[in-house]
Design a protein that fits this description.
This protein has 317 residues and is of the alpha/beta class. It folds into 2 domains: 221 residues, Rossmann fold, CATH 3.40.50; 68 residues, Alpha-Beta Plaits (2-Layer Sandwich).
Length: 317
């Protein structure tokens, strides 16, 4: 059995801004070599939590350990092994692509030959070789995002924080970034990932936590969190002229969690443990009603997010 090594441990963390509790007695652990997703609406405490993890913010209570060592503002040996790729593009407009990467890599790697090798490797990794002499203002949004990523990982960090690295990028650049993140994980890096795109979480993350109001509401694998939904399936039936009596009968069915009927479309969410599509169709048939179409789907991560936070994740992007 593979040894479980914890790279990040947060213990009973509390961060207050006067009356606002931004992080509320929060604890979590992130294992070595995994991609851990941090999800939550705007204002949920994600950014504050990350800044506390990195010792960029002081906090009122608790402890943060990185690589089993207490993380403090003076933990320079630990910080040498961390990479941060912020949501905002953090590069120098007056420097070329190559010089930007070389500069940020040079903050960690003093040896010129070793630095040159790492810069070349990361330029190849993010596929910016054709743009190495370009200044950032000449790059598209997607290319700037790739440059931002390169600057944060050129020193080969063991632990990487990625804060919405695919915001406003074209599909091609987005795919390259996502594949690159998986590659970094496969090469041994531990990655903390925040995003407003649920499909990225489902594609990338080994485990995740959903935050709101500074607390972790749920955590686990995608499958474990989806299984927490009170909904077993969502059913959509296109059937016209549905009598109000049938709508009321379905709405009062104890297996139905919620129901809407608009423009000839009947949408129902069924409670966990129940699957009653056949009984619904039988009821419609008895009333002489013939559906135009029928579809059903299992709950998704986005459904669970909406259920436990009351908010759509993308509405907060």
């Amino acid at each position: 059995m593979k040894e479980r090594i914890i790279d990040v441990e947060v213990i009973d963390l509390v961060k207050r801004y006067k009356e606002l509790v931004a992080v509320d007695h929060l604890s979590l652990s992130i294992e070595q070599g995994e991609i851990f997703g941090l999800l939550g609406p705007n204002g949920s405490g994600k950014t504050t939590l990350i800044n506390c993890m990195l010792a960029l913010l002081s906090y009122d209570q608790g402890e943060v350990k990185i690589f089993a060592k207490p993380m403090t503002p003076k933990s320079y040996d630990v910080k040498q092994q961390i990479g941060l790729v912020p949501q905002e593009i953090s590069v120098y407009e007056e420097l070329t692509v190559y010089d930007n990467i070389d500069y940020f890599c040079g903050l960690y790697v003093e040896d010129k030959e070793e630095r040159r090798q790492r810069v070349e490797e990361v330029i190849d990794f993010v596929q910016l070789d054709s743009f190495r002499k370009f200044h950032p203002r000449k790059l598209s949004g997607g290319l700037k995002r790739r440059l931002n990523l390169a600057c944060g990982i050129a020193h080969r960090p063991r632990l990487i924080f990625l804060d919405e690295p695919t915001v406003a990028v074209d599909p091609q650049s987005r795919n390259r970034i996502l594949e690159g993140i998986k590659y970094l994980r496969d090469q041994g890096s531990t990655i903390v990932y925040t995003t407003h795109y649920m499909e990225e979480v489902e594609y990338l993350c080994d485990r995740l936590a959903i935050l709101d109001h500074g607390k972790i509401l749920v955590s686990g694998t995608n499958e474990e969190i989806i299984s927490m939904s009170s909904i077993s399936e969502s059913i959509e039936i296109v059937v016209y002229d549905l009598p109000e009596s049938i709508i009321d009968e379905l709405r009062n069915n104890p297996s139905v969690d919620s129901l809407t009927y608009q423009s000839g479309t009947l949408s129902m969410a069924m409670k966990q443990g129940d699957s009653n599509l056949l009984s619904v169709l039988h009821l419609l048939t008895e009333e002489g009603l013939e559906p135009v179409s029928v579809s059903g789907k299992n709950p998704t991560l986005n459904d669970v997010f909406l259920e436990i936070t009351g908010k759509e994740l993308r509405d907060n992007a």
